[in-house]
Amino acid sequence: MSSEIKRILFAVTIAPTIRVLMxxxxxxLVQRGYEVHTCSAGNLESTRRxxxxxxxxxxxxxxRDMSPLRDLQSxxxxxxxxxEVRPDTLVASTPKAALVSLIAAKLLRVPxxxxxxxxxxxxxxxxxxxxxxxxxxxVCVWCADVVIAVSPSLEREYIQSGLAxxxxxxxxxxxxxxxxxxxxxMPLSESERSDKRHDLGFLPGDVVVAYVGRLVTxxxxxxxxxxxxxxxxxxxxxxAVAIGSNEESLDVPDWISYVGVSDDIRSWYQAMDVLVxxxxxxxxxxxxxxxxxxxxxxxxxRATGAVDSVIDGLTGVLxxxxxxxxxxxxxxxxxxDSALRQSMxxxxxxxxxxxxxxxxxxxxxxxxxxxx
Length: 372
Hints:
CATH architecture of the largest domain: 3-Layer(aba) Sandwich
CATH superfamily of the largest domain: Glycogen Phosphorylase B
Shape: globular
Oligomer: single chain
Largest sheet: 7 strands, parallel
CATH class of the largest domain: Alpha Beta
Order of helices and strands: EHHEHEHEHEHEHEHEHEEHEHEEHHH
Strand content: 15-25%
Distance between the termini: 6 Å
Radius of gyration: 21 Å
Number of domains: 2
């Protein structure tokens, strides 16, 4: 067994991942006496809260797309960072940062090398691109001492795809990268919710069906668009809303209200009636947990990762991947039954309170690191 953990280096490709998928985790580790370093492309914006974390951020240029020459340069830069930090534990996630940092860590004999698997991009690819991504995954597995998948279904898919042996892959609890903050995300009283919905422009009879996330093909944007169109034919009270960045400049049909990126996502969760996540692949999606914390049920696809975010018939509804008839039928079902929405929403919040508290997730990860 390795010596006691003292210094942890987290590797991610882009800086926003640290804020979105590690919120609170670094501070929790620092408070327990660990020296924490993070590294990504770009700078982590400095705030008073970051300074309170007491951790150091390092910046290395990395590209998200495949680029052999630049990737080799990134490996060299990773050598320098690892040699400077001298971590006893490297936790590498997101495809590019995982590949280059784990290669460097393997060659420099970092005692603990953890591949935190947040998703499997090759699931929605084919041909030469899939072969290249598969090779990249196998290199990461070879370099790492353990692979931690962020959901049970992702662990199963990874093993069944032949990328790693069952002995090398783990997951924590019911899954999730970071859990969910149920003190910040919580349901409102009926009067508060009514006021919030009014402020956002909704009428009392509106049933708000929302999409939250990047507007990209792999997230099932076209499925959401067509499913809400069909559902609205049966229930004109349905108000379809989309919140997130439109990275692929996809068309937004006129029956969907496009909000864009919101600085107050909590208000949208507290005002919506149903969340729809028709994604084609995930690691473990955060948005169903965030909606659940606000007592909102989710309609999710049975895609890898997403299937773990909903208990079918209890906290929401699971539908087939790319299945527009099932998705529109589920929207119609929940839109037309306020009592069902309420019961599912209550069960969803109870589930996140029980299974997805951040401290439990963080401790689960730390226990795996410590056992190496």
